[in-house]
């Protein structure tokens, strides 16, 4: 396993992040624990979750599965860098949301972190992430709440998710003025097919010393060999991938991508992960395996070395937006 420091911190994390969103909804507890054990045995020490995972009536279920895994002992918690998130309401449906039970008010942050700690069966969270910006709560209030949690030993670092570049700057400028560390990571949608984050989010993260943690590295399966599976296994695309393939140009783009990787003898999903590992500022992409086989495939991506020729060809198929302001100014 390869490790790197998370942004400007001294915290060492694996270059792959184990995403747990499927634990509960699609993967049962026993299989989830097997996957987590296999990941830890492979040296993958960075685990990401969120309080809302489990969804609907089962919100919080994913954290409970992780907590039960920690409770087995064997140094599992000590060897794990644990990240979870706060923002969404924990009610089973939107109609039953109670005021102050969501977003980033000091009241909800305090309530949410205590509930997560109980479900996770741990006394601290390594990285507590804001799942979305809260347009109603000033960062003065947010940082004050985080200060208390750090002083209490309940969290060690704060991170963001789905923040635009200007909010990363705003949050960390205010933190710096008060002598606080501020955000240390940003979790964002980033992959070969979705590169808008290169314009401002990643440059902001690099300037302020945040580690970048891409989610959906295969873009909902679109970059995982979807056309090959359709042709050879009869497996139809679903979700985001199916919607994207309705566009003829996108389908042609994905076909060119799969043909290129077939020429180089590479699996599409593994190459997509390996590409992210070459990108400036990226700490490690989040992989969300539902099975042991999917975890094994993700781990193989760490061993791939993509040639300059292949990287150039991938850029030709999936051109990035270019830097700002040039990308939108002229």
TrEMBL record:
Q: Which positions fall inside the NADP-dependent oxidoreductase domain?
A: 15-317
| UniProt keyword list | Oxidoreductase
Q: A Pfam family in this protein?
A: Aldo_ket_red
Gene Ontology MF term list: oxidoreductase activity
Lineage, top-rank taxon, reads Bacteria
Q: Does the keyword Glycoprotein apply?
A: no
- UniProt keyword Nucleotide-binding, yes or no: no
Entry's Gene Ontology cellular component terms: cytosol
What protein is this chain from?
A: Oxidoreductase
Q: State the organism named in the record.
A: Streptomyces roseolilacinus
């Amino acid at each position: 396993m390869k490790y790197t420091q998370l942004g400007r911190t001294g915290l060492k994390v694996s270059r792959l992040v184990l995403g747990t969103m499927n634990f509960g909804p699609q993967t049962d507890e026993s299989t989830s624990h097997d996957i987590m054990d296999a990941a830890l045995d492979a040296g993958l020490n960075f685990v990401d979750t969120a309080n809302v995972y489990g969804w609907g009536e089962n919100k919080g279920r994913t954290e409970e599965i992780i907590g039960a895994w920690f409770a087995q002992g064997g140094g599992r918690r000590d060897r794990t860098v644990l990240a979870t998130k706060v923002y969404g309401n924990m009610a089973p449906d939107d109609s039953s949301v109670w005021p102050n039970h969501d977003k980033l008010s000091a009241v909800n942050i305090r309530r949410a972190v205590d509930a997560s700690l109980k479900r996770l069966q741990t006394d601290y969270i390594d990285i507590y992430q804001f799942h979305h910006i809260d347009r109603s709560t000033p960062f003065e209030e947010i940082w004050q709440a985080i200060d208390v949690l750090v002083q209490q030993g309940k969290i060690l670092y704060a991170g963001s998710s789905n923040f635009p570049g200007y909010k990363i700057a705003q949050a960390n400028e205010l933190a710096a003025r008060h002598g606080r560390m501020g955000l240390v990571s940003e979790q964002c949608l980033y992959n070969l097919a979705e590169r808008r984050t290169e314009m401002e989010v990643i440059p902001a993260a690099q300037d302020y010393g945040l580690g970048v943690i891409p989610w959906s590295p295969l873009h909902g399966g679109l970059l995982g060999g979807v056309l090959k599976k359709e042709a050879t296994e009869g497996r139809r695309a679903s979700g985001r991938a199916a919607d994207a393939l309705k566009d003829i140009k996108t389908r042609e783009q994905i076909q060119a991508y799969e043909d290129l990787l077939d020429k180089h003898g590479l699996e599409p999903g593994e190459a997509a992960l390996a590409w992210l590992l070459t990108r400036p500022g990226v700490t490690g992409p989040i992989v969300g395996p539902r099975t042991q086989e999917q975890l094994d495939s993700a781990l193989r991506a760490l061993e791939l070395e993509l040639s300059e020729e292949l990287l150039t060809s991938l850029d030709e198929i999936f051109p990035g937006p270019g830097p700002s302001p040039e990308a939108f100014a002229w």
